[in-house]
Amino acid sequence: MSHASVKSLSLSKKRKIRENPTQNVDAGISAKRSRNTTQLSQSERANTSGIEDTRRCGKIISIHLTNFMCHSNLRIEFNPRVNFLVGRNGSGKSAILAALVLGLGCNAKVTNRSKSAKDFIKIGETTAKIEITIANDGPQPFDPDEYGESITIVRTITTSSGYYAIRNSHGRIVTKKFDDLQRILLYHNIQADNPVFVLNQDSAREFLKELEPSKNYQLFLKATQIDLITEKLDECLHLHKAHREELATTEKKLQYMEKDIAVHKGKLKELMEFEHLGENLNALNIEYHWLLVKELEDKLDEIHKKMDKHEGKVNELNKLINNKDEVNSILTQKIAESFENIKLKNKDYSDVNQSLRKIRCQIDEIIRKRSEIEMKIESLKKKKSRLEKHINDLKQHIEERSKRRQNEESLANYRKQCETSLTPLIESLKRELNMLMENKSQKELIIDKIKQEHGTTIDNQMATVKESIKNKMLIYGRHMPELLKEIKKAHADGKFSVPPMGPVGAYLQVPNNQYREAVESLINAKTLQAFICDNASDRRTFEHILSKLSKENHHMIITTKFMRQVYDVSNGRVIPPSGTSLLMELIECPNPVVMNFLIDRMRIETILLTDKKDIAESITSIRENVPNNLSKVVVLCSDSAHLEYYPVPHYRMYSNKIRRPKYLHINVNERIKYLEVEKSKLENQLSSLKKDLEGVVPQLCKDKEQIQNKRALLEEKEGALMEMLQKIADLDNVEYADYNNELQLLKNEIEERNFLLIEIDQGVNENDLELNKFKSQEEAFKDDYGRKKYKLQEIQNEIEGMKADLDKLKLKLRNINDNEALNKDRLEGLTKQCNQFEETKQFAEQKGERLISNLTVDEVLMQMARIKAKLERGRPIDLDQDSLQDLIAHKERELETKRLIYDNLKTSIDSLRASLRHRFDFIKKFKGHMSMLLTMSFEMILRLRNYVGNLVPDHQNKTLKISVIPRDHDTASVSSARALSGGERSYSTVAFLISLWSCVDHPFYFLDEYDVFTDEVNREYMTRLLTEEGRNHAWRQYSFLTPQDMSLDPENFIRIHRYCTEEY
Predict the structure, then answer these.
(1) Cα gap 1042→503, rounded to integer Å
(2) How many other CB atoms sit within 10 Å of the CB of residue 63?
(3) Polar residues composition bias: which ranges (predicted)?
(4) DSSP for 529-547?
(5) Does domain 3-194+1002-1059 have CATH number 3.40.50.300?
(6) Which of 555, 600, 935, 1046 is the most buried (most CB within 10 A)?
(7) Cα 1012 from Cα 1044, distance rounded (Å)
(8) Burial class of residue 638, CB neighbours in 10 A (0-12, 13-18, 19+)
(9) Sheet-wide strand order for 641-646
(10) pTM listed for this prediction
(11) Would you tell me how many other CB atoms lie within 10 Å of the CB of residue 896?
């Protein structure tokens, strides 16, 4: 960590140091093999008030990793606003992001690196520990009395299990429950598993590569937490359904309990009635007999009423019975007369009906003839229509025949014009345009190359190398001799308990010239310039000395306890196979502290070097050939590059560049000669390119203007060609009939058809006259037919009336004969009913006094039968009356309790349903609002680069399409994100992410490899855009991971963490 990094610590970190000044010292002593990453800040914070404005609960203060992936002991202090984590691929940046996700309670699958947390334990270790300290000193802290101003979440991972521990700001463990961690994260709105807030390396690459509309929509839902809300609402909906089913079951139970109580009440009623069954039976018996008397009385009353009503009719019938013979003779005579009249009328009916049928036959014949004439007329008209159409077709053929020659001449002219003028011209324009475009691209490359080439750095290097002849320490920087003097002076004054050791490269030698460049490249220049301190107090003193000398010279500072002996690595070292060398054996270092530092940081006891590629592949790609404890194999390919092989199960290979050795045992004269040659080459190349530049720049402007003119002319000619081709196609599609001597034939045929038309018209007129004659005859016959039919109907009505009168006479005669016997039978029946009534009444009086009842006889008999059956069965239940009443009361109380529960549950379910409906409506509106806000923000960010684009959300199909038109492109053609270049797509993606950030809020945002597919220009613009985002949102914390180097203007809110080598 640099001296600037120490000054830019957050207030919470400074507060910790004041409260426990020995804490960091003890941590450095206890960690046998510890190291800290290089952390650089652009500048110090301006003042204390600026820090106070950035306070917010939930921000990441620091992360401490122990034996996690490639890190043995790594501690990172985060700036509360903007952090850049910079380092080459494999340096362990993404491991920090994975530790953040795992440490904040997420599953290992969320990291996209493994399915189990135990896979993150460093190789060769049994446990790993993640310590994440989050701020709790902003507005609305979580339980500040218990936790204080910060909360440290510790997750320990072992090969078999794992556990959490949550500490307060004083280091005391408050709880070990995972539920308490979830409450803290929920309280501070920390969503480590949300890719919008923590976008890891794999997700970033996939997102930048695909930009699928469906995945964009899912990201939008995750960012706004709409997916989580919808999931919770769905759970509530299922809960509502389950409670509905439970409510239906409860309702059925209530109905069953009501029926059970009704049954018991019925039994109680039966029990109470059983005592009076005998009395009831006697009463019903008396009631039964009197009901019989009442029925007989009703029947007699009805008979008397009928007799009074029909008394006059009876007298008349009696008279008819007395004069029966006379009446019979009269009626018989009338019947005979009626038969004669009916016969006469039937004869008249037959005559009229016969004439009516004849008329009907005549009408049918006339109708048939009329139909034939009408069909003939219709046939002639159709034939006439066909002749007229044929005549018109013949005339049209004559006209087309005369036009064909003219069309053939036009078609030949169009084709000749296309072949001779337009087509060669268009091909020529296309060739010229392609040549101009290629020439323009080459000249632009020349300009870029001229601007990039420079040789100032070589001059500085040469000066430093020449001065190092007198003092070798100058090769580590002009300030190095003075720095070493200040260290000796401070030690003499007692400010150091043990003087810092450094630079590290001064203690190292590589006797084998073959491997010197590779060794320096593996250790890297930053490590060779590093200093080692024994404790935190010496570190602070050394940082103070550095700050006084120069603020521009940054050295890595490592704090570790000085040991007098080199570590015993016999159990952890690699035994080099034939043809390989161990890195630890290639380095000569008399100082045990420096050697232990290299073992801790580089694991030099596990790295092999060789100059044969097949040996490296053999011992890394086949599991059986991998030596124990091997971490990687370095292959020397050439003077400018080497290969790094990593053994299975994580077999992979990287290619790295090698620079000339600068620090390890170099020959000064050779170094100067090499730099002079390089400078000479660059100067010659630069002078040549400058001459080319003088002629290229003006010509480039002219080429651009010519390209635009050629494009316009090409479009114009292509349009004319397309128009002519369309005309040729239209003329080719016209077909003509080809007849021999058809002109005269057609004219003769027209004359014949005209004669036929005249004959058809004459036939139609003759048939029309005959048709009118038949129509007049048909009308006369129809009138005669109507009159006959009316007369026939009158005769038929008279016959029907006569038949009716005859039937009445017959009926009257039959009634006279039947009434005499019927009246005699009725009289005898009335006499019997009266006698029966008297007997029944006397029997009822003997049973008891007369009772008034509303029941019928059948109902009384049914009740008597039930009572007799009950008496035969005995008591209906074994319980007595009091016990049964108590049982019924108990069941009624239980029913009332259940009903109360049922009513409360029903009220709650109805309320839940109404609430769900309201929230689903709200989610629908919320989606529309957030998508509109997202679209506006996205368009505004695109306009910063003069891009035009928009977002097209489709909530029905769950898609979110990104459309972007880069600057200087045709605004009429909307481009999808897939059609963009790498840089344009990366910028559009970052714009989309920032738009999502503007719609939601979170304490921190981590973004890994945002510039993986971009060019230098877009990368610089994207970095400034993200930096501006951090400047405008001081209450948020941003961390961006990138393999590219950073070159930013000094700002008091930015911290850059550099990872110079891979750590294992």
Answers:
(1) 28
(2) 20
(3) 36-50
(4) T-EEESSHHHHHHHHHHHH
(5) yes
(6) 555
(7) 9
(8) exposed
(9) 581-582, 607-610, 632-636, 641-646, 652-657
(10) 0.42
(11) 9
Query: What are the residue boundaries of the structural domains of the chain, listed by start?
Result: 3-194+1002-1059, 199-271+881-1001, 470-659
Each residue's pLDDT tens digit, 847-878: 666 666 667 777 777 877 877 776 666 665 66
CA separation for the pair 101, 117 (Å, rounded): 11
**521: closest CA among 583, 580, 573, 463?**
583
Q: pLDDT tens across 335-369, in order? A: 776 667 676 766 766 766 777 677 777 777 777 77
- Specify whether the CB–CB gap between 940 and 998 falls below 8 A: no
In the chain, the amino acid numbered 335 is: I
pLDDT tens for 555-587 read 889 999 898 899 999 888 999 998 899 999 989
Q: From CA 676, how far away is CA 1029, in angstroms rounded?
A: 45
Strand order in the sheet with 38-41: 38-41, 1054-1059, 82-87, 1037-1042, 1004-1008, 198-199
Report the half-sphere exposure of 125 (CA within 13 A, side-chain side). 21
* Alpha carbon separation from 373 to 28, 385, 770, 771 (Å, rounded): 125, 18, 8, 7
8 A C-beta contact, residue 1056 and residue 84? yes
* Type of residue numbered 924: K
Residue among 69, 66, 75 at smallest CA distance from 122:
69
State how far the Cα of 86 lies from the Cα of 1058, in Å rounded to an integer.
Answer: 5
Whole-angstrom Cα distance, residue 152 to residue 563?
A: 31
Beta bridge partners of 75: 64
Average pLDDT of the residues in 5-28: 35
Residue 413: its H or E element: helix 324-417
Residue-by-residue DSSP string for 2-16: -HHHHHT--HHHHHH
Vertex 424, ends 419 and 429: CA angle to 5°? 150
pLDDT value at residue 741 = 57
What whole-number distance in Å separates Cα of residue 1055 and Cα of residue 80?
Answer: 9
**Token digits for 564?**
């007098």
Question: Which of 913, 940, 948, 933 minimizes the C-alpha distance to 239?
Answer: 913
Phi, psi angle pair for 1003, to nearest 5°: -65, -35
Q: Which residue has the tokens 């039978």?
A: 825
Say how far apart CA 633 and CA 648 lie, in whole Å: 12
* Residue 794 in tokens: 């009158």
87 forms bridges with which residues in the sheet?
1059
Enter the DSSP assignment of 66: E
767: enclosing H helix or E strand = helix 742-847
Please check whether residue 644 is in contact with residue 610, taking contact to mean a CB–CB distance below 8 angstroms: no
Crossing angle for the helix pair 277-309 and 226-274, to the nearest 10 degrees: 90
* 477 Rama sector, left if φ>0, alpha if ψ -120 to 50, beta otherwise: left
Q: Using an 8 Å Cβ cutoff, are 199 and 1006 in contact?
A: yes
| CA–CA distance, 344 with 332 (Å, rounded to integer) | 19
Query: Tell me: the pLDDT tens digits for 643-680?
Result: 889 998 888 888 887 776 767 755 555 555 655 666 66
Helical residues (DSSP H) of 275-323, grouped into ranges: 277-309, 311-322
pLDDT band at 77 (very low <50, low <70, confident <90, very high): very high
Q: Per DSSP, what are the bridge partners of residue 157? A: 128, 162
Parallel, antiparallel or unpaired: strands 162-167 and 948-954: unpaired
Tell which residue, 904, 955, 944, has the closest CA to residue 1028: 944
Half-sphere exposure of 177 (CA within 13 A, CB side): 7
d(CA 559, CA 73): 12
The Cα–Cα gap between 529 and 555 comes to: 6
CA 68 to chain centre: 35
Tokens 């997202």 -> residue: 934
Q: For residue 162, give both structure tokens.
A: 């794992």
| Whole-number pLDDT of residue 322 | 62
Please give the DSSP secondary-structure letter assigned to residue 876. Answer: S
DSSP for residue 122:
P
